[in-house]
Design a protein that fits this description.
This protein is 44% helix and 20% strand. It is α/β, with parallel strands linked by helices. The protein has a domain of 141 residues: Rossmann fold (3-Layer(aba) Sandwich). The strands form three sheets. It has a nine-stranded mixed β-sheet with strand order 3-2-1-4-5-6-12-13-14, with helices on both faces. Strand 4, helix 4 and strand 5 form a beta-alpha-beta unit. Helix 4 packs parallel to helix 5. The chain is globular and about 55 Å long. The protein binds adenosine-5-diphosphoribose (APR). The site of adenosine-5-diphosphoribose has 26 residues, from helix 1 and helix 4. Adenosine-5-diphosphoribose binds next to helix 1 and helix 4.
């Protein structure tokens, strides 16, 4: 079997971290694409230098074009600009929207059968935009948000309860932003419901740490945003596609009636396999949870409308 190929567009903090994790695991050959002259080439060369001592043997290539991406099984889009002083969220939406549009046009040309994973923020809106521009089946374009938010949720629970993180099962759905919805009532610690393990005020603090996880990292770093946990989350989703794992992952998926939502993409549990989103799972949510999910999706719809893509 020929080796699998993963293209990562945007060789910045998140893209390079994901690329390195995938290379370390020998999950696939990796192509790093970026507009910055020398950056993807330099990072790729650095990773190739690590092969002997790191004990992995895959090919990592850096490029400013798309020819090398031909035949990719998965394409990850992390290309984008961070918000700069004086820039509104709307400005960021338009700027990153233009970048994602240009990237997806190239991706469809060179890798028309790839599964596309969007990471660029605001990621729920960017996922919908990428899907609309791509003309691909809806399952083939998805976004990475919930895996990261759920990992932050699990971390916060493990710290508060003093248990190994592997004993925590917890999921976050909704948009990747302030309106995300940590599913407190479904979280468990070694099989016990979270509400039996932590007091209500401790649970409140866990939720706060989950929702503010990204902002907490930004505040500490002072410049730039999180990349280790985002990179690990990208790698986990890419591996699920490459191995046709059919694992259930909280995924930003384009919806067509699920949870009463359509014409929008937002974080929901989904079966992830070789075709991308194999199936969106509809949890039997409580009324307040469903209302919160729909409110979160309404925020995404506003962004979609601001890009002129509303239905
Ligand atoms: N094509 C390819 N790469 C591009 C393009 C483009 N049109 N425009 C910008 N880039 C590249 C930049 O040159 C940069 O190297 O995207 C990269 C982004 O990297 P960082 O600035 O380090 O950002 P990062 O922290 O990796 O975050 C990337 O993911 O989590 C989201 O909010 C985050 O939208 C951001 C994205």
């Amino acid at each position: 079997m020929s080796r699998r190929k993963v293209t990562i567009v945007g060789a910045g903090q998140v893209g390079a971290t994901a690329a390195y994790l995938l290379a370390l695991k020998e999950a696939a050959d990796v192509v790093l694409v970026d507009v910055a002259d020398g950056v993807p080439q330099g990072k790729a060369l650095d990773m190739m230098h690590a092969r002997r001592v790191g004990g992995f043997d895959v090919r990592v290539v850096g490029t400013n074009g798309y020819d090398e991406c031909e035949g990719s099984d998965v394409v990850v889009i992390t290309a984008g600009l961070p918000r700069r002083p004086g820039m509104t969220r709307e400005d960021l939406l338009k700027t990153n929207g233009d970048i994602v549009r240009s990237v997806i046009t190239e991706v469809v040309r060179v890798a028309p059968t790839a599964v596309v994973i969007c990471v660029t923020n605001p990621l729920d809106v960017m996922t919908y935009l990428a899907w609309r521009i791509s003309g691909m089946p809806r399952g083939r374009v998805l976004g990475m948000g919930g895996v990261l938010d759920s990992s932050r949720f699990a971390h916060a629970i493990a710290e508060a309860a003093g248990v190994p993180v592997a004993d925590v099962d917890a999921m976050v759905i909704g948009a990747h932003g302030d309106t995300m919805l940590p599913l407190v009532g479904r979280a468990t610690v070694a099989g016990r419901p979270l509400c039996e393990v932590l007091a209500p005020d401790a649970i409140e603090e866990v939720v706060r740490r989950t929702v503010n996880g990204g902002a907490d990292v930004v505040a500490l770093l002072k410049s730039g945003s999180a990349f280790y946990a985002p990179g690990a989350s990208v790698a986990a989703m890419v591996e699920a596609v490459l191995t046709d794992a059919r694992r259930v992952m909280p995924t930003c998926a384009v919806l067509d009636g699920e949870y009463g939502l359509r014409g929008v993409s937002v974080g929901v549990p989904a079966v992830i396999g070789a075709e991308g989103v194999v199936e969106v799972l509809e949890l039997d949510l409580a009324d307040d949870e469903l209302a919160a999910l729909r409110a979160s999706a309404a925020g995404v719809s506003q962004g979609i409308a601001a890009l002129g893509l509303g239905e």
